[in-house]
Design goal:
There is one protein chain. With 322 residues, the chain is α/β, with parallel strands linked by helices. It has 12 helices and 11 strands. The chain has helices at residues 3-10, 18-22, 39-55, 71-78, 93-103, 140-149, 165-175, 187-195, 209-213, 260-274, 277-286, 295-316, and strands at residues 28-32, 59-63, 86-90, 116-124, 127-131, 155-158, 180-183, 201-205, 218-222, 250-255, 289-293. The radius of gyration is 20 Å and the shape is globular. Helix 7 (165-175) links the parallel strand 6 and strand 7 (180-183). The chain has 2 domains: 3-125 and 248-316, Bordetella uptake gene, domain 1 (D-Maltodextrin-Binding Protein, domain 2); 127-222, Periplasmic binding protein-like II (D-Maltodextrin-Binding Protein, domain 2, 3-Layer(aba) Sandwich), CATH 3.40.190.10.
Amino acid sequence: MPQVARRALLFAPLASPALAQRFPDRSIRVLLPWTPGGATDIQVRSISDIASRILGQSVVVENRPGASGTLGAQHMAREARPDGYTIGQMPLGVFRLAAMMRAASMAPPYDPLGSFTWIIRTVGYMGGVVVRPDAPWQTMAQLVEHARRNPGEVFYGTPGANTTDVVMRRLARIAGVEWTAVPFRGAAPNLQALLGGQIAFSCETSAWADMVLEGRLRLLAVYTDRRAERFPNVPTLREAGWDVASDSSYGFAGPRGMEPAVVLALHDAFKAALHDPAHLAVLRRFDFQLRYLDSEGYANFAAVANQEEIATVQEMGLRLGG
């Protein structure tokens, strides 16, 4: 069936406008599975604030860090009603954790595809490897060589277990080094630990961007597929010689069984907010990339991403707690 026809079928109930006129009639919660202060927190708060003005109701961001960025998804799958008043940011870790649990013969607390209604995909991260400005490594190659000479003695921070450390695990395999991930509950504590000298480097999304521009941190490489616009002299990991890249695009979903009219109302509000000049300024600040997909496209993307994460878990032998 052509995409236009499938979309028309999906939203056929909108012929009756009563539901769309009633929604929303109270505030909407956005579950964000990361700590306040990071790039994701700032981006999600920006788009939610703009969407609230479009919807005519408050869109309140609620931080629920932990469990590799899946606590919001777990709450939606287990407790939230499919009425559109509880939705959540959906990182790729939602698929990864489920795949890891199944690989360990454990039952995930949700079905990564069947438990959710996919609303809109919005953006993709820009992430990289940062060190303190007094660190002895000027390039990623120097850091890798240091780790090679000191196996198991180099510790690095991530915003959660099995998040950006998957990028570093893949790099370690290719480069033949051993280093140790230290998971934090988001970008803010990760970077705070780096500034405090508790870890050697952070593999983190672009919450570090302002600190790099201010000279408080040094950016060695980005792990996206192209250089960041604001850091044109910093190479990608691929340019540095290792075939590793990730942009970890994400969006918003709600519990399974949401009414199509409600999905469309949320989609349209967040799509308009996505392209609002104030939100685009936030994206530029953190070098996020637009990765818009509508509800059907996002559902299709989720199916592909789920299979890719299953393959990653199998390829790298990922397991809970390790």
